[in-house]
Structure formats: structure tokens, C-alpha cells
Amino acid sequence: MKNELTLQRSAAYVSVGMMFVKRLSSCCHSLIGRLAAYYSSVLGQQVTLRQTFLLLNAQAAFLFTVFPVDCSFVLRLLCVVWLVSALLKCRNSGL
């Protein structure tokens, strides 16, 4: 009997966890959708969710390339490679 109660309790935890993941996913999807709408209004063309992620990647690469002033040369070179790669991906996606 005790094992059955444990299984039922763990199934309830899994159910609550799945509901949390679904809510979190829905919230993130709506935020990314709003960001895509913002990018669409700024760029004057329709921006998909994939293109939104590519733009976010390019922005992050730019920040990591420009702001770390006291990093080693190798790290800065890796950030520049990341930035160039992100910009090429944006260009190939039609942005």
C-alpha cells in the first residue's frame, strides 16, 4: 500500500511539473513573439521567430565582442569570430 501512495504522489509531482513547464513555455513564446513584432516594426518587414533568435544571437555576440575590455587576445578573437558568424547567419536568413 505504501508503494502505491508513493507512486501516486510522484505522478502528481510530475503533473505539476509538466504544467509549470507548459506555462513557462507559453510565457517565453509570447515574449519572443512580442520581440519579433518589435523587430518587424523597426525593420519594416515580417520577422519570424527563428530570425528573432538570430538577431538576439548577433546582439549577444556584439556585446561580448565590444564590452570585455580586459580580456585576452584569444578570447577577443573568438568573440569576433562569433560575431561574424552571427551576422552571416542573419544575412543568409534574409535580414
List the helices and strands and how they pair.
Blueprint lengths: L1 H42 L5 H18 L6 H20 L3
Give structural notes:
By secondary structure, the protein is an all-alpha fold. The N and C termini lie far apart (61 Å). The radius of gyration is 21 Å and the shape is flat. α1 (2-43) crosses α2 (49-66) and α2 (49-66) packs antiparallel against α3. The protein contains three helices and no strands. The protein has helices at 2-43, 49-66, 73-92.
Low-confidence segments, ≥5 residues, pLDDT <50?
A: none
Averaged pLDDT:
83
Helix segment tally = 3
**Rg, Å, rounded:** 21 Å
Structural class: mainly alpha
The main pleated sheet reads as: none
Head-to-tail CA distance between termini: 61 Å
Percent of sequence in beta strands: under 5%
The tally of beta strands, per DSSP, is: 0
Order of helices and strands: HHH
Shape: flat
Please estimate the helix content.
over 70%
Short description:
By secondary structure, the chain is an all-alpha fold.
